[in-house]
Amino acid sequence: MVSALPSTIALVVLTLAAPGSAADKVHLTVDPSKSGAKIDRNIFGQFAEHLGSGIYEGIWVGPESPIPNTRGIRNDVVTALRALKVPNVRWPGGCFADEYHWRKGVGPAEKRTSTLNPNWGGVIEPNTFGTNEFMDFLDQIGSEAYLSVNVGSGTPQEAAEWLEYLTASQMTTLAKERAANGHAAPYKIAFLGIGNESWDCGGNMTADYYLSQLKIYSRFVRNFNPAQVGNQQMLKIAVGPGDASTEWTETIMKAYQNRHWSWDINGLSVHSYTVVKWPPSYASVGFGVKEYSQMLKSTLEMEDLVTKQSAVMDKYDPQRKVALVVDEWGAWLASMPGSNPGFLVQQNSQRDAVLAALNLNIFARHADRVRMANIAQMINVLQAMILTSKEKMILTPTYHVFRMYVPFQNATFVRVTFDAGTYKQGEIILPRVDAIAAKDASGKLWVEITNVDPDQSAEIEFEVAGVKAKEASGETLTAPKVDSVNSFEAPQTVVPKPISAKAQNGKLTVSVEPKSVTVISIEQ
Ligand code: AHR
Question: 478 and which of 28, 85, 349, 513 could share a cystine (Cβ 3.0–4.6 Å)?
Fold first, then answer.
């Protein structure tokens, strides 16, 4: 029985009996009287790095482009992203951030200097998409800024001046420059990442060395926007580990507990890609249930990672003031044949949709500590929401999952208990189903059910404790095969379809198709 409760009290026991068959009903009980933490909408954040065609082509086509755009930002992409209610976008990297010098990306376009992007294909970085263009993009999609400042090859002065340029309301020289560049009012910067993977591409630092940098940056990189007070305060996010090992977290969190008044953090990042083994060799198309199962087994390790990091954080921060921020996650697969290997181009299948749902459910169960996450990456890179090819755009199965999960943004986690059962593929044993439930601000109950089994549908019989449910309706996403994708030739292969059920004697029965993600609301 899975008792899906927030974090520490979540209990997961898989039935190690015979694999499930369609005939095995799954009994699922939602108990609205047992509510948990708020599922912070920031767990549905995105990551957009200067990498491949993630920014140039994916977002920025330039004002002169025949592709319909608003001030250089493509309109089709903006419309698609608005439907996701993207809470925040992490930018400009990634590894790119630790080599980014913001001054090269402001001012008149014709005066901007071009540089190189040595991390990602060694291509020319024209710097035409810079600070003001990013903030305009956020404005167009209705999202908040999560900036990563350059700790690796920058200085505290450079980062502090970037923040002054962005946020000063008094007319300093930098604020005047911002006004001359078209934005007189200070910008709002909701989140600030201090470095990126500082143990690796960000400078191969030890935890102690990074900590000394963190204290300096945290002290001097100030937000001057007078509106950013109280709950609008800019939240500072420290670099955390890239796996389940806890030494780095120990160092940062111990220092946090004993911190001097002069520095502070509000989040600790962790990066975790689903790879199975490095270098990423699993194909994004043309695979079967074996690779499907291996990837899902690997992705479920997120639970262990979050649990281990949270335990260390609980030791030094029992009040859970510091959020665990999973600001890079998703499937990292082999690059598409014929693409530049430095561009990290991969297709996005129904497997990735199931993988996304399983991760979002883990974050939701840990909502009291995991208050932010950013899937890598938004467009054309890794596990993307959107793929573009010149004037064409397609929505991926992962996009549809993020759209279906919108009702969970800022909803309150509610206890759901069910017998997960098992799906067995060779030596691999996975939970057959997964589920979460939540109550939104209007009191409506929402349930998500993932059927992991690629071959068998699952009959879900559910009841709402203490309530006579009348009916349920929503959307379900499945596909002909585990590796089904949306392509430019066939963009509607994997799209959600409606699903509904009427109650009998207060119980609702829904049949969820194999390898599916389903989100329904319950009418009482
Ligand atoms: O998302 C691609 C890269 O993965 C990022 O730049 C880096 O932070 C991570 O290693």
Answer: 513
Q: Which of 99, 161, 197, 463 is catalytic?
A: 197
CA 91 centroid distance within chain: 13
User: What is the arithmetic mean of pLDDT over 248-260?
Assistant: 98
Write the pLDDT tens digit of every residue in 165-190. Answer: 999 999 999 999 999 999 999 999 99
* Per-residue pLDDT tens digits for 295-336: 999 999 999 999 999 999 999 999 999 999 999 999 999 999
Report the b/e string of 371-404 with b at 16+ CB within 10 A. Answer: bbbbbbbbbbbbbbbbbbeeeebbbbbbbbbbbb
Q: Is the CB of 94 under 6 A from ligand 1?
A: yes
Q: How confident is the model at residue 338 (pLDDT cuts 50, 70, 90)?
A: very high
Ligand 1 binding pocket includes 52 (Cβ within 6 Å) = no
Supply the DSSP symbol for 310: H
pLDDT band at 468 (very low <50, low <70, confident <90, very high): confident
- Closest ligand 1 atom, CA of 202? 8
Name the residue of 328, 332, 343 to mutate for ligand 1: max ligand atoms within 8 A of Cβ: 328
Q: Write out 120-183 in H/E/C secondary structure.
A: CCCEEECCCCCHHHHHHHHHHHCCEEEEEECCCCCCHHHHHHHHHHHHCCCCCHHHHHHHHCCC
459 catalytic per annotation: no
Residue in the structure block whose two tokens are 């992409």: 77
CB distance 193 to ligand 1 below 6 Å:
no
All structural domains of the chain, each given as residue ranges with its CATH number in brackets, are 12-38+413-523 (2.60.40.1180), 41-409 (3.20.20.80)
What are φ and ψ of residue 452, in 5° steps? -75, -30
CA dihedral (160, 163, 165, 169) in degrees, to 10, reads: -120
Question: Could you give the CA distance from residue 413 to residue 36 in angstroms, rounded to a whole number?
Answer: 5
- Ligand 1 near 99 CB (within 6 A): no
- Told to judge if 197 belongs to the known catalytic residues of this protein, a careful annotator would answer yes
Show the tokens assigned to 342.
Answer: 């430095």
Q: Would you tell me how many other CB atoms lie within 10 Å of the CB of residue 123?
A: 16
The pair phi, psi for residue 76, each rounded to 5°, is -65, -40
Q: Please tell me if the CB atom of residue 376 comes closer than 6 angstroms to any atom of ligand 1.
A: yes
